[in-house]
User: Fold this.
Amino acid sequence: MKKHQWIVGLVVLAILVGLVLWTRQHVHFEFSKFWHQLTHAEWTRIAIALACIYVGYIFRSARWAFLLRHNQRVRPLSLIGTQVIGFTGVALIGRLADLVRPYLVSRRTGLPLSSQIAVYIVERLFDMGSIAIVFSIALVQVPADVVKKVTDQVISHSGLLSHAPGWLAPLLARYLGLILTLLGALFLVIVRISGNAVAVFFERTLGLVSKKMGAAAGAKIRAFHTGLDTMRSWSDFAVTTALSLAMWALITYAYLETIRAFVASPELANISFSACVVLMVISGGASVVQLPVLGWFTQIGFVAFALQLIVHPGPEPATACAATLLLVTFLSIIPVGLIWARFEHVSLRKIAEESEHSGEELGGGAVADSL
Assistant:
């Protein structure tokens, strides 16, 4: 790991140790209740959730293959191995391995790595858009009085929008994700049509503040433009959107089934769809900075804390549920990925280092970090 990654790791470790010590002093945690939650969970539901996560990798493979079709036709299921091994690398090594998937696809297809980093960028953009749409749909189901109560509390504590009309904050709470997604889609259409002109505009505008910032923005916009070349018609956009939404619907259902499997906790067993989606977004945010192994425990802590805030179970059921969510949605791919890598003679650490080095040479590492 690089020096700055070691520093971040040590800082997170220190915070985790401090959190454990604080918890031991202030939170009464009974391991017997923790095991009771696990042993009385409905494992049939957890198995269904696990199946949804595995099917999601098939959708990822089909989507990547579809995005390649204008450059090279590959079978929809032929890239499952690259997805499985890539996410196994992220789970074990951390975000250092984020470019393993485009690197493996490049090696398998013989296409330039730059083109696969562009596909990776488009894939991440569609993921973020799909999450925003699911989040907006979930918030639509929240009663108006609950939304107003929460937004009033946020405004009173933060001062944000304190002078705005009373209807604005609830409207933004429900539809901000969808609005940002539509604005992002509009921006992508403009980049797709006039990518170089948009890049030059940002280079000149931001260059007035910092030439380095302007050059970086221009390079990323040109990378977006290259990636968007994978979609040459509205039908391409529609199919990619459909695959993305189907995949995230499966992931959302996996979260819902896993949480509701903890029948010994009424708060978890009866969690609403809206609360589940909010938790999923929080969990995704906590995984953005994914450190090797250590990040597993920090994510369990974040998700358990979020569960207690959202649906108010005790610390034991919240921790049991958070650990199971991590296992089902993130770590479950590790055994399959290790076996797959073994059959394909792939060393995860070596391939992670090679992909990061190649990505830095192309400027892709910075793009990956920005997403």
About this structure: Residues 364-371 have pLDDT under 50 and may be disordered.
